[in-house]
Amino acid sequence: MIVSRSMPAGTSHGDGEIVSPRAAAEARFGAGARSASALRVRVQWPERGVVMVSVGGEIDMASLPRITEVLRQRLTAARLHTAILDLSQVGFASSAVLELLMLAHHAAGRREARLLVVPGTGRVRRVLELTGLSGLFEQTGDLDEALARARR
């Protein structure tokens, strides 16, 4: 798992990147630290009251606990009014993505925060369409649209 954090302008806490043991081993053996299936989670605060959690790689039962912990921590931030969950870079999504989305939906609801989901055009969108859950989540086509909606 790779986690990186971006803080608001003027704030610095190091590079904030965590590389999973699998990715580190791949780097030692020349396969590259960022394989297509490696889980990547990036957290950004593009502006006050808005948190953006971007996930890439695979979402399955093995990766779900790590993603949900990051998401849970970010959705407890003070003065949060909008959470953006960017899943557009997910290459594989099992039904675990539904659990992730429901957790985010309920956590945001408890905080009375808005949840915007960027499903992308791949697996996540397909899972939402197949299950009939597309209408449950406020979706955007891309991050720019999500940020514009967050400002409203």
SS-based structural class? alpha/beta
Oligomer: single chain
Query: In whole angstroms, how far apart are the ends?
Result: 33 Å
The rounded Rg comes to 15 Å
List the secondary-structure elements in sequence, H or E.
EHEEHEHEHEH
Q: Identify the overall geometry.
A: globular
Strand order of the largest sheet: 1-2-3-4-5-6
Strand portion, in percent?
A: 25-35%
DSSP helix fraction: 25-40%
| Low-confidence residue ranges | 6-35
**What's the count of strands?**
6
User: Helix tally?
Assistant: 5
Q: Sheet bearing the most strands, described?
A: 6 strands, mixed
Please state the average pLDDT score: 80
Summarize the model shown.
The chain has 5 helices and 6 strands. The chain has 152 residues and is α/β, with parallel strands linked by helices. It has a 6-stranded mixed sheet with strand order 1-2-3-4-5-6, with helices on both faces.
